[in-house]
Give the backbone structure.
Amino acid sequence: MADSTAKKSTIVRSSLLSRQRATRAAFGTLERCAPRLGARWAERVWCTVRHADRSRSAPAAPGRLVTLPLQEGPGPTCVAEVWGLGGPVVYLLHGWGGHRSQFGAFVAPLTAAGFRVVAIDAPSHGDSGPGRFGADRSLITEFMAALAAAVRSFGPAHAVIGHSLGGGSAALTVLDGLPTSRLVLISPMTDPTQFMRGFAAMLGFGDRIRTGLMRRLELRTGRPMSDFDAVGRAQARFRTEPPLDGAHLPSMLVIHDREDKQIPFGMGKAIAAAWQGAELLSTHGLGHNRILREPEVIRSVVEFLQVSAVDAYRDSVPGKTGQVA
């Protein structure tokens, strides 16, 4: 049995390597002869979602499921799960290939602290329907639109917690004008274009296809790629004297593991440095996903959210002190 299993594993690895070589050879030819066609293929690969394993998520008690349109009229929708009937609203946004249940360990502590919790599946993720680019494909703008749609449906955000691309998307949505008191970025991916050269090297194409890919993504999203650099935009925002709308930007907590193999720790460090007054909490040995199940991480997030929630509740209800209702 062991020999049979090892033989099958060897065959699978050999098949994958053969496909990778063929793909690289094809992209190399397209780079030289047909870069526009190569850019079209690269765009499809770039936007294709590889789904995370749901079995590794910490289970949460079932909430209420709601389907939300991303905008008025026909088009993509997203699924949100809601816990709690009242209190300040905390929105949770997963990363690329993720799903809302990755935040399962956060739900009970947040609701126990008096928050209403809304976890979102971006288009082509979790239980949400396909995005505008088709099934199993998505765009960063759809992450941002899903968060904005949830806020329209469930009310102003006291806080937004985003993981990986969800963290970068949350920061960008706030920089675009979404109001919130607190912003928590966990293992944030703050600039997709930083990964594009590695993506090109992996698939075996060069600057001609890469430039075409950037152009296609800009046309598809309707925005320049520089708009998705959260660090650069934060630096520009706080560089203005007086800070342009600086008073309206929320307090930020960034949590990132130093051994994260998917999103470099430097990305979390950079956004914390760019965002005036942000706190940076580094961890060791939790990696990119296990960090979402770590009790100390969750405790730190809840404490960060509670401080301003209590203050806001006291300000809104004269004479009230103590815990948030």
